[in-house]
Amino acid sequence: MGRNRHHHTRATHYDQRQTRDANEYDESKRRKMIRWIRLRFGYQGPELDSRPHDRSSLSKSGRSSGRSGGNNSFASPYGSLQYTPSYRMDYHTHVLIVGGGIGGLCLAQGLKKHGIPFTVFERDPSPNYRTQGYRVRINHDGYEALKTNLSPENFEVFLRATGHFQPGFKYLDAETGGDAPPNAQFSHKSNVTKNVFSADRAMLRSLLLTDLNEDEIQYGMSFKSFHVLPNGRVEVTFENGKIVEGSVLVGADGTTSRVRRQYVPGAATLLDTDSGAIYGKTLLTPEIESFFETESTTMVISKDPVMSLVMEPRCKIQADLKEFAAISNSELPDLQNYICWVLIARAQYFHRNEDTTVQDLFSMTPTEVANLSNDMTRDWCPQIRAIFENQSPEWSSFLRISTMSPDIRHWQPSTVTLIGDAVHTMAPAGIGCNTALHDAEMLVKCFYEMGVGVDAIAQYEHNMRQYGSEGITISLDAGKMMYNLPGVEDMRAVVY
């Protein structure tokens, strides 16, 4: 039986009636949120609209030239097609982005800014379907990517709605509460000490959704498969039966990327670090605020057992988010009263008994996760234990830590590519999100300068492999110091 021709449409024209009302409500709420931020922080910029920004050249060249790096190549079945890539945009140019996370949305904003047609396909049924995590550190690379890809007025909103802080860590000993010894401190030092921000992830994602209309982001679109046509264009099929066609496909669908599994299943293997993390939020009492440097990043180090607690700074800008959350009808808590933290250790320390499995950890309720964090830190000093005793259990969650090898293998470029965790998943070290933003900036630059086609993707992947590999290496070094992370040679492939 042939395909239903009514399901085979261009990405910008298929039927959206089932979700139109919900999308209009979410779009109205996002616009209300951003308008309020602009008014609250005194920025007088243009009104929001859904029109593409004027096309203009990028403000700077790429920051990484990259190297081809030896013979670790991988033969993708999609890279041997013979066709001539397009060096100019025409009526049929269209970028298909699978995944509406921070990397995919930053890519979308950059394409919109430079007049390149695109559609983001997000599997969630609506923008607010799930909570969007905790705080995220935006380093200099992330700052430059947002500055390049966002419109000037929305970048101004980012600057005014996030907190700026000095990079670096304050190290504490878990048992004594005093300063950690120098040999316990992470030796990696960044040579960039400016433009470092702490942003609420939900706030950042809302900002990246701003100005995207219903033709530019589609919800309820779970990726199923893709097919590269003889002319190099890409046909994508979704679980709901819809089929769309575009010039290129960008997999921005995260750590367990379905696009990656079909495209280069042997080139980017997800590795189990045999480690885990508990994420939480804690009410910021006067006692906690007086003990901790709440406006800088604090790392609490335990040597027996080896594990670390990392607390992100509570920046002053958060004091304005209570009114923001109320106006936006957000489910976020009273953010100026909370501090975000992550407790990281090898998997064995999360096991309540010998029979505990990874699946048992994943199936824990938030309250059970909160209780586990209390049990694991019962021998820590009272002032630090207050972080766990005062936590909000409903925000507690357990995550398995995965990574990829820093040896990012090569494959023949085609009209399919990957960005973010889909191609360089990293252990927690404040780098992964920024690398995804850098990917988005680099890919937009290559598309704009070289045309939406294979040559642009080849140049992007050439550069990405260098800085992506560096990011993975830094995160592995941090993990080794923080919670005795094993080497990649001792890790097993994740089965999913």
UniProtKB/TrEMBL annotation:
<dbReference type="InterPro" id="IPR036188">
    <property type="entry name" value="FAD/NAD-bd_sf"/>
</dbReference>
<keyword id="KW-0285">Flavoprotein</keyword>
<feature type="compositionally biased region" description="Low complexity">
    <location>
        <begin position="58"/>
        <end position="73"/>
    </location>
</feature>
<feature type="region of interest" description="Disordered">
    <location>
        <begin position="1"/>
        <end position="27"/>
    </location>
</feature>
<feature type="compositionally biased region" description="Basic and acidic residues">
    <location>
        <begin position="48"/>
        <end position="57"/>
    </location>
</feature>
<feature type="domain" description="FAD-binding">
    <location>
        <begin position="244"/>
        <end position="449"/>
    </location>
</feature>
<feature type="compositionally biased region" description="Basic and acidic residues">
    <location>
        <begin position="12"/>
        <end position="27"/>
    </location>
</feature>
<dbReference type="GO" id="GO:0071949">
    <property type="term" value="F:FAD binding"/>
</dbReference>
<keyword id="KW-0274">FAD</keyword>
<dbReference type="GO" id="GO:0004497">
    <property type="term" value="F:monooxygenase activity"/>
</dbReference>
<dbReference type="Pfam" id="PF01494">
    <property type="entry name" value="FAD_binding_3"/>
</dbReference>
<dbReference type="InterPro" id="IPR002938">
    <property type="entry name" value="FAD-bd"/>
</dbReference>
<keyword id="KW-0503">Monooxygenase</keyword>
<keyword id="KW-0560">Oxidoreductase</keyword>
<feature type="compositionally biased region" description="Basic residues">
    <location>
        <begin position="1"/>
        <end position="11"/>
    </location>
</feature>
<dbReference type="Pfam" id="PF13450">
    <property type="entry name" value="NAD_binding_8"/>
</dbReference>
<feature type="region of interest" description="Disordered">
    <location>
        <begin position="47"/>
        <end position="77"/>
    </location>
</feature>
<protein>
    <recommendedName>
        <fullName>FAD-binding domain-containing protein</fullName>
    </recommendedName>
</protein>
